Amino acid sequence: MKKLSVVIPAYNEEKMVPKTAKTVSGLLKAHQIPYELIFVNDGSKDGTWQEIEKAVSTYPGITGVQFSRNFGKESAILAGLATATGDCCAVMDCDLQHPPETLLEMYRLWSEEGYEIVEGVKHSRGKESALHKASAGMFYKIMTKAVGIDMSRASDFKLMDKKAVEALLVMPERNTFFRALSSWIGYRTTSVEFDVQERVE
Predict the structure, then answer these.
(1) Edge-to-edge strand order for the sheet containing 88-91?
(2) 199: which residues sit within 8 A by CB, 6+ positions away?
(3) pTM more than 0.90
(4) Number of helices and strands in the chain (H, E)
(5) Which end of the chain has the least Cβ crowding within 10 Å, N or C?
(6) Of residues 179 and 111, which shows the higher confidence score?
(7) Mean of the pLDDT values across residues 127-138?
(8) What does the H/E/C string look like for 39-100?
(9) Do 49 and 64 touch, CB atoms closer than 8 A?
(10) Residue 64's beta-bridge partner residues?
(11) What is the pLDDT of residues 41-81, one digit of tens each?
């Protein structure tokens, strides 16, 4: 079986890193999927990096990347993708609001059906305030018009073949919006729906 890299940006996630490391590595190991987890500490102000270091020493398939300051989620994602050594790379949030079980279907669609990008699209957005829902709706309406791709249910939760990752990394843009660019670059694409999970600590 081919190797899956999972990039996990983390900012002030000291409570979630141990749980996420255990949950995701345990799931992939149970399904005999060769893997590496890449936690990218985006200049956290708490003990996130110390927890990543503990995870690295506990699980053989975990790597950590440390930023000197907070550069933002987009930079953390790109740094993780640049570090990845897998045949395909998935990106997911550290807070487990992206359900790890969905990785299994993403991997199957890539490895068995030949899709080069598997987009995670939101079936439901979980609990959001009315203000947040309205502002998010307006933002994605603008993004949809700008890129010509429906961004209303888009997310950073996705899996990409190595050649798609390489195409993304050589793009000259420095102020990137990952969920739009990864859809825009082309390649054979499909999607899987997921329900945004409640954050648990």
Answers:
(1) 62-66, 35-41, 4-10, 88-91, 158-161, 117-124, 189-195
(2) 95, 96, 97
(3) no
(4) 7, 7
(5) C
(6) 111
(7) 52
(8) EEECCCCCCHHHHHHHHHHHCCCEEEEECCCCCCHHHHHHHHHHHCCCCEEEECCCCCCCCC
(9) yes
(10) 39
(11) 999 999 999 999 999 999 999 999 999 999 999 999 999 99
Give the long-range contacts of residues 127-135, CB within 8 A, separation 24 or more.
Answer: 127/198
Residues in the chain: 201
Cα–Cα distance, 107 to 114 (Å, whole number): 10
User: Six-digit token pair at 2?
Assistant: 């081919």
The CA distance from 10 to 170, in Å, is 24
Structure tokens at 28: 């992939």
Task: Say which residue the tokens 């010509």 belong to.
Answer: 148
Q: At residue 82, what is the residue type?
A: A
Q: How far apart are the C-alpha atoms of 42 and 52, rounded to whole Å?
A: 12
Check if the beta carbon of residue 178 is closer than 8 Å to that of residue 156.
yes
